[in-house]
Amino acid sequence: DVQLQASGGGLVQAGGSLRLSCVASGFPFVDYAIGWFRQAPGKPRVGVSCISSVDGSTIYKDSLKGRFTSSSDNAKNTVYLQMDHLEPEDTAVYYCAAGPLGPYYGCWNEGGLLSYYGMQNWGKGTQVTVSS
User: Fold this and answer.
1) pLDDT attached to residue 115
2) What letter does residue 52 receive in the DSSP assignment?
3) What is the side-by-side strand order in the sheet with 3-7?
4) Do residues 68 and 84 touch, judged by C-beta distance below 8 A?
5) What pLDDT is recorded for position 125?
6) Are strands 10-13 and 126-131 parallel, antiparallel or unpaired?
7) Residues with Cβ < 8 Å from 66, sequence gap 6 or more?
């Protein structure tokens, strides 16, 4: 049973930091790409970071570069999202999602935003609220 469990959200003041965790189970961790996404109230879901299907690197929404960093611990089947210098505009529900690497997975930077497909499994999300 594929499961993704995101945690680590909370309330933080502007300028603060949070680290989100996404624990994956039920599938071969190294054969999947796990990305981070967020959805603010009244807005569509957008990609935060993902594994590029072009070169396998971790890529970010342009406006988040330098503040957000994704990393993984294969031994723990866990992906992290370190978020620094948080801004009220970062307030959203953050999700992790996974898709099997291969021809049916894609993630790339298009005009500063992340375009993606093939994310087959989604976690429930964790709320991040940044106060001004």
Assistant:
1) 96
2) -
3) 3-7, 18-25, 78-83, 68-73
4) yes
5) 95
6) parallel
7) none
User: For residue 64, how far is the Cα from the chain centroid?
Assistant: 11
Cβ–Cβ under 8 Å, residues 68 and 81: yes
pLDDT in tens, 94-118: 999 999 999 999 999 999 999 999 9
| pLDDT band for position 1 (cuts 50, 70, 90) | confident
Residue at 81: amino acid letter: L
The torsion angles phi and psi of 29, rounded to 5 degrees, stand at -55, -45
Backbone phi, psi, residue 60, to 5°? -135, 155
Q: With CA atoms as reference, report the closest residue to 97 among 70, 75, 62.
A: 70
**Residue 88: both structure tokens together:** 């009220």
- Cβ–Cβ contacts within 10 Å for residue 31, how many? 10
